[in-house]
Amino acid sequence: MFFKSWRSQSTLEQQLQTHLPMLERIVASYEAIPAIQQELMQEVVLAIWSSFDKFKGDSAMKTYFARIAHNRCISHVDKAVKSLAEQELSEHLCQSSYIDEQLNEQQKYQQLLAQIRQLPIMQKQVISLFLEGFSYQQIADICGLSTSNVGVMLNRIKHQLAQFFTEESS
Question: What is the CATH classification number for the domain harbouring 136?
C-alpha cells in the first residue's frame, strides 16, 4: 500500500491518508502492472498535492481527489495507447496469469479489473466511481453527464460485466 507509514500532519496529508485506498483502486482499474501502478499513484498524489491550493471546497474532498485521479489515469492511458509494444506486453501478462492460475476470489477481482480496463474511458470512469460508492449525482457532476445518463450507462456496464462472468463460468 502506498505511504502506509506516512505521518499525517496537515489537512491535505490527513485527507490523502483517508482516501489512499480509493485512489489505489482507481489507479488499479486503469493499470495492470504493479510497478506502473505505483508510478501512476505517485503522479496522482503529486497532482493532488500541487493543485490543492486551488481547491475551493465546491465539492467533497473525496470527489475532488477522485476527479484528479481519473484525469491523471486518463492521461496515462492516452500515453500507453501510443506505445503499442507496452500495451501488448501488458495484455500478454494478464492473459498468461489467468490461464496458469486456478479461479479464486483474487482472480475474479483481477478479471473484473481487466474487464473494466477494456471499457471506453467514460464507461470506465463511471463504473470506477460507482464501485467507490459515489452517488449517481456525484458521478454525473464528476463526468459532466446527467444522472439519467449515468443510470443508463451503469445498467449497460453491469449487464456487460455480468454477461462476461456468465460466459466465463459456462
Answer: 1.20.140.160
